[in-house]
Write a structure and sequence with these properties.
The chain is mainly alpha-helical. Helices cover 50% and strands 7% of the residues. The longest helix has 26 residues.
């Protein structure tokens, strides 16, 4: 699991999955990286434990590490999607979201730290409305498919839903900010809409679910 850069947190340097977690005190309200990774394999997680950003040691299968891993996987899937040809507006939106998912990872890695707020959720809602405005109404369920990029957007949507469930599970055990949880919910909506936008821009129709099929 890659280290998360956490700004505005005056806590000692910690580790996630045996690797350094990079963050620094709030000097000028801007993210700064206090240290650079010089060693990747540290062996500090060989006993099944890892360190959070505040230095706390937890089991690698704890609900917090599970949620962190799901968000990390979502960001990786998004990276694959961004490697595909995409409409400019979609690429711009997703590029910013990839950075925000990294911020969300830092929030999960450091209990009590807040990276995302209501403004982030509101911006996703605006994106959903904006991209959806140019699409025709759906009369049937659609299946993942069409272009490769659209299929990857659907994959990102399903991984996003899984990440949301993990964060909901974490929130049942420990405090989690509402915007962090709601952000993932709105993001999955955006992936659904973007899958349709990507197909439309490529001249490919939605893949409609067929209710009646030959046995």
């Amino acid at each position: 699991m890659r280290p998360y850069a956490v700004a505005r947190a005056a806590r000692p340097l910690g580790r996630v999955d045996g690797e350094r977690v990079l963050y620094c005190p709030d000097l000028a309200a801007t993210p700064k990286m206090g240290h650079r990774l010089s060693k990747i394999t540290t062996r500090t997680g060989d006993r099944g434990e890892t360190g959070l950003g505040d230095g706390t040691r937890v089991a690698k299968d704890s609900v917090r590490i599970a949620a962190l891993g799901e968000v990390d996987e979502l960001n990786s899937v998004l990276g694959v999607l961004l490697a595909e040809p995409l409409p400019d507006a979609a690429r711009a939106a997703l590029t910013r979201i990839q950075h925000e998912l990294f911020d969300l990872g830092s929030e999960i890695a450091v209990p009590g730290y807040r990276a995302l707020g209501e403004a982030h959720v509101a911006r996703l809602e605006q994106l959903v409305e904006s991209f959806n405005a140019g699409l025709g109404p759906l009369k049937e369920f659609i299946l993942p498919g069409g272009t490769r990029a659209a299929a990857l957007a659907h994959l990102a949507r399903t991984v996003c839903r899984r990440a949301e469930r993990a964060v909901v599970g974490l929130a049942r055990a420990e405090p989690v900010s509402d915007p962090a949880r709601i952000y993932l919910n709105r993001l999955s909506d955006l992936f659904f809409v973007l899958a349709r936008v990507i197909n439309r821009e490529a001249g490919v129709g939605d893949v409609l679910w067929q209710k009646s099929r030959d046995a």
